[in-house]
């Protein structure tokens, strides 16, 4: 997934989705975040990579491991968040857009149509 100019939050969400894809199910092993970003063609500013690991830990998405190299191990909360982000980014279908319209809006639309029909019949 290639992202153009974007903000840090978009980068962080894209990286978490990529990490979850590579570590599904959780506990398969820690990954280096820079390598994950490269494999998934996620662009970022250099300072973002320094911030994202601690942010993932703070948000309880996983754990940073320092053993000669810096790696990240995702937890269940991280996988859940990645699933949510993936769902939010999915293209919306016409059916899902129609289902998202509230009941009161449908009632208002129907009332407007009935009023229009009544107005046209009265002429």
Written overview of the protein:
With 123 residues, the chain is mainly α. The protein folds into two domains: 8-90, Winged helix-like DNA-binding domain superfamily/Winged helix DNA-binding domain (Arc Repressor Mutant, subunit A), CATH 1.10.10; 93-123. Helix content is 60%, strand content 8%. The protein is built from six helices and two strands; from the N terminus they run αααββααα. The chain has helices spanning 8-22, 33-39, 46-58, 76-89, 94-99, 103-121; strands at residues 62-66, 70-74. It has a two-stranded antiparallel ribbon. The protein is elongated.
Q: How do the strands line up in the largest sheet?
A: 1-2
Q: Could you name the ranges where pLDDT drops below 50 across 5 or more consecutive residues?
A: 1-5
Architecture of the largest domain in CATH? Orthogonal Bundle
In CATH, the homologous superfamily of the largest domain goes by the name: Winged helix-like DNA-binding domain superfamily/Winged helix DNA-binding domain
Largest sheet: 2 strands, antiparallel
Q: Indicate the proportion of strand residues.
A: 5-15%
Shape, principal axes of CA atoms = elongated
Question: Which structural category fits the helices and strands?
Answer: mainly alpha
Number of helices: 6
The number of domains is 2
Number of strands: 2
Radius of gyration: 22 Å
Rounded to the nearest angstrom, the distance between the terminal CA atoms is 58 Å
Helix content: 55-70%
Which CATH class of the largest domain applies here? Mainly Alpha
Q: How would you spell out the order of helices and strands?
A: HHHEEHHH
Q: Average pLDDT value?
A: 85
CATH topology of the largest domain: Arc Repressor Mutant, subunit A
